[in-house]
Amino acid sequence: MNTPTLTLLLQAAGVSLLLALAAIAAGTVAAALLTALAFSRLRPLRFFYRLYVYVVRGTPLLVLALLIFYALPALDLRAGPYLAGVLVLTVYVAALFAEVFRGGVLAIPRPQWESAKSLGVPPGPLLRKIVGPLVLRYALPPYVNVCVMTVKATSVLSIISVWELTLASREIIERTLAVFTVLSVAGVLYFIMCLGIDRIGRRLERRLALRGFAGERV
Amino acid sequence: MIEIRGLTKSFGETRVLRGVDLQVDDGEVLALIGRSGCGKTTLLRCINFLEDYDAGEILLDGQPLWYRSGGGGQRHRVSDAEARRLRQQMGVVFQQYNLFPHMTALENVCLGPRHSQRVSAAEAEELGRRLLARVGLADKVAAYPAQLSGGQQQRVAIARALAMRPKVLLLDEITSALDPELVGEVEDVIRSLLPERIMMILVTHAIGFAREIAHRIAYVADGTIAEIGSPAQLLEQPRDPTLKDFLRRMR
Question: Which CATH architecture group holds A16-163?
Fold first, then answer.
């Protein structure tokens, strides 16, 4: 493989990473809001949460991508493939993140809630000082898991003409016919990106570890 | 002063409290004893509204807690904000300490004053350090709960409850989860509070400790206060036959 080809693949990998990071950021915010709905006192909001999670989680990402890509123009919304791509991924990972966060909230032992209750902690500080930090700790491993999946899921966006690592690879293959070389390099690049995210996750996990507990260093 | 009138509470079909009437005066230490499942812990939890109750009234210094009566015999819960305000007048210490695991001892103690009572950070910290010193943990302010023994955690929990400057301390079997050799240090902390004449209601299986510190002991059986009196009276001349039996078994 010559240098220009490799450079091209690296650029495409950069695009994939950016798409993933954008979706992770937007998806995290959306998921936090969704999780709030899951624990709302209002039934319609809880119902909306379940509906959203079931529908999105129960749809193949490929179908979701095509659906959103073609639906946007039909709704008179003009978005390029990149914006549409980030939107697709965001919608998708928001559902997955929301379930991760919901699990984190459910993992908080009831006595912790009662302690906070008996101290009369208002909702704001309750969220910032107790629920947030605890959910972060409980949910971090599955959260990182979804982040890694998001990187790989960007490859689906090639179907809606987002130029990222998979589409770039296919273009190069069409020109050079070097199927195995190009796909191997692409695979390694995906692997490195996933590994990087996993390493960041591990570091964060160590930093947030509840001090004094067994399993502090895993 | 706490007044409880006609408190009833059921969990499904099971009637846990069947009309409890109780009055606890300022500065009084009241111990609740009784068989497990008799309703004593539920009663304590109702006072802090950690459990809701079906009927009856709880008043603190004459103000009705948790429910307001509306028109036509209806009652409705106080708002969340009001419940928070009312809870700040009480301190609860739980059997399992229930410290926040991601916070240091000092942060645990400061949380209430800082965020519920909106005391300044500096003032809350000063109070927190003073209270931790009081329970003998001046050198543990920066320790996390998992780095502390059960007895130390429970002392932090007591400091955390005291930080609210409560009118009443509700203590729910606070030494039951502790190794025997750690019970003494927690009991000592409670003893050291007696001169302050803070109202305490404690659920306990430690009859000896109850006899020593309580002004009155209430024997709870079948969801009511079956017998109440001074420790000497109640423990030495019990009238209720089930209480006699209970005391014999505890010995």
Answer: Orthogonal Bundle (1.10)
